[in-house]
Design goal:
This protein has 662 residues and is an alpha+beta fold. The protein has three domains: 20-299, Beta-Lactamase; 334-439, Beta-Lactamase (2-Layer Sandwich), CATH 3.30.450.20; 445-648, Heat Shock Protein 90. Helices cover 44% and strands 24% of the residues. Strands 1, 6, 7, 8, 9 and 10 form a six-stranded antiparallel β-sheet that branches. A hairpin with a 2-residue loop joins strand 9 (193-203) and strand 10 (206-216). Helix 11 packs antiparallel against helix 13 and helix 13 runs antiparallel to helix 14 (606-619). The longest helix has 65 residues, at 3-67.
Amino acid sequence: MTAAQSRLAAFAIVAIAIAASAFAYMSWRQSQVSAFAASAKAALANVDLVLDRALLTVRAAQGLYASRPEASEGDLTRFVEGMGPVLGLRSLVYHPRVTAEGRAAFEVGLQRSGKSTSGIWTLEDGRRVPAGDNPVYYPVAASYFFPDVAPVYGFDIRSHPQRRFAVDMAAQYGLGTSTEVVTFVTSGEEPVRGVIFYKPVVVGGEVVGIVSGSIELDQLITIARSTSPDIRDVEVEIGPLELAGGAPVDSPNVTDDSEPFLVVDQQNHSGRLWQIRVSGGPRITDYARGYALMTLVLLAGLGAAAAVIGYSTAARRGRDLLSAETRLRRTLDGLVPLVFMTDPRGRVITANRTALDHAANGEADLVDKTIDELPLWDSDPANKDALHLAIARAAEGEERRLDVLSTETESGQSVYDVSVRPIAAVNGEITHLVVSALDVTERVEAAETERLLMRELDHRMKNTLQVVQGVVRRTARSHETVDAFETSLLGRITTMARAHDLLARERWLGADLRTVVLQEIQPFEEGRSITVTGAPIRINPKGALAFALAMHELGTNAIKYGALSVAEGRLDIDWSLEGDDDDRKLIFHWRESDGPKVRVPERRGFGSLLLERSITYDLDGSTYLEFAPEGVNCRIEIPWDRIRPMTASVHFRERLAKGAMA
């Protein structure tokens, strides 16, 4: 190699080293920008989370007072402490709407309770002064402070100029609002600044009060700065109140990559646009590492190309891995079943969106808990033992499948088809378990409904045969001729057939009382004056058959001897449910009028006996027959729990409660 070639080679090596060093510096710089962007986004996410949780807490208190406007401060305290501490929230306060006419009574109540002797007041030049004459006040009546701060009972938020506009907007439009940055009344010697959120309490279409929650701005900034040491400063600017809501904002990114880096984000909260500016940059140690990297690249020289190739390869693999993880996450989140990824012991590592939506507190209720400990499942030991056994078998390489009962909610309990599958590494070692749970409640209830119908049909057939035997026997005894016997018997059996046909259409789950009554009196109407009134009530099959027979007997008697035997006769039928839950009864009336003069029968016929048996003995009810001269009156009283329809769903819930489906 000649001297010229040596110099040329040295120049080439130096050029490559310089180029590699410059590339390394730019890469390091870009990584710092990306790292700071990630830190800033995490800080902004923490701010958004704190604000959202604070607003949710205020909304929960709003719900408390909307359902119970008379709730006391003790109720508020128990309510808040039941939810646990809320990061960033300073106070939760209820301000009832007090009119000018009710001001004196409210102030007397404050004095009697020992909360305040100042009445309704406001602040002027830092001093408490009585609030001026206003048509409406919103004073502090109940409060809960998360720090140790003394309450300010009687302080009227509407009389304070910094709060009045937001309060009036909340009361006028019934929407949540917030203040600009204000100084808290409870600040003490050192002023404490923050933002107050207002939620109107609406009862019966009227605003009866306002719930407020306050957040300290300095504490919010501290939370954001604590996310990463790269963050040096956080500035918050709050815009004017716009109840129509702001336009959607873009995802925050680094807007200025000079020193210091700057990320700007905009968030909409309670009608105001929050602009949050996060600034910062690499620390001295980060710069030292960066310059050390450049020095190393300069010294390495010839290794620059290999470093670039390695960097590019690693970056591409990282993107491919991230893309694969993203596709997997989207696939899992798109599945209907609940899907959990666990370690071999069944401890949850991650879960899909469906599973998170079923957990009251999201990931907090799922991650790092074993499958059998999740709050999704019923606490029945058989439930937990079955899940624990399935996890143990899957950890040994077996696939397991079982039905599991969910926790009972207001809408009932669900049954899940749970599948546990092992995932093995290349060497055969079980590294993870995939647990999926599909809601099969409808399928189980369908099977339960079919079982119920078959049981009811069997019971009805046996009962019907017994009733027919009794009807034939007693009808034969009470009629002297075959024709009379045939007519009476066919009428009663036809009545039973119509009732059975109605119940069959309703799948033997019950029938509407009005339909039963109208179906049985329809043959007697033909130009006669019949009135039927009563609320829609469904009764069970036994009750439907009993009422069908009762209507037939009463109608037959009325068409032969009573009000329906003459054109001017009237029949009024009505019913209602009376009494409390434990003593609730169905009261049924049959009233005849304007018919022939009624005479008390010399003997009781089978119709009366059948009426008494079907109501009194079969349903534990009472029948009162009055043969008044102006018309027959019949009053029937039946305990509601004897004729209340028992649906397939109710049977299914009873079996679940007994562990039959576990």
